[in-house]
Amino acid sequence: MSSNLNVLQVIPKLGYGGAETGCYDIAHFLPENNCKSYIVTSGGELTKFIDKKKVKLIRLPVHSKNPLLILINSIILIAIILIFNISIVHARSRAPAWSCLFATKFTKRKFVTTFHGTYNFRGRLKKFYNSVMVRSDLVIAGSNFIFSHIQENYQEFLNSKKKFLVIFRGINADYFDP
Predict the structure, then answer these.
(1) Which residue stretches of 33-172 are H helix?
(2) How, if at all, do strands 88-91 and 6-10 pair?
(3) Prediction pTM value
(4) CA distances from 35 to 7, 32, 178 (A)
(5) Domains of the chain, earliest start first
(6) Residues 172/146, Cβ–Cβ less than 8 Å
(7) 10-residue stretch averages of pLDDT, the chain, 178 residues long
């Protein structure tokens, strides 16, 4: 990996779910590979386990779906991106993804999203809200099922240049060694 890579992951809350532990694991993997690692979150149980020497933790109310807070978070994320010279912004949930989308468009940085599950949508507004997860430069799906779900339900938001990657969830075999 390039030593000039500065990666910012944005997640609503750093709890014990799959998206959260994936964020935690990646955050600690990056510095071991000569990259700088940053997490923006509103808090959560896993924050106390973050190695502050390896990962810069920044607290913001990115869990909020309030449009005004999403806009304010975007402005703060722009500052974070510029101050820390962030190369890649990785959003793992819809509300923070909107803030990240605006911030990366303004700063011209790479934007990645991970689509962890299916999202309910009954109306056009909810589907539009969910579509932020496929508006990034790279969309990561957690399974072939999620990949199919994206293609079946969000086709109108996709273009031929869209890059998709399926990364299957796994477990840390060293930690869970039988």
Answers:
(1) 67-83, 94-107, 124-130, 144-153
(2) parallel
(3) 0.87
(4) 7, 7, 31
(5) 6-166 (3.40.50.2000)
(6) no
(7) 82 88 90 95 94 96 96 98 98 95 97 83 83 89 84 76 69 61
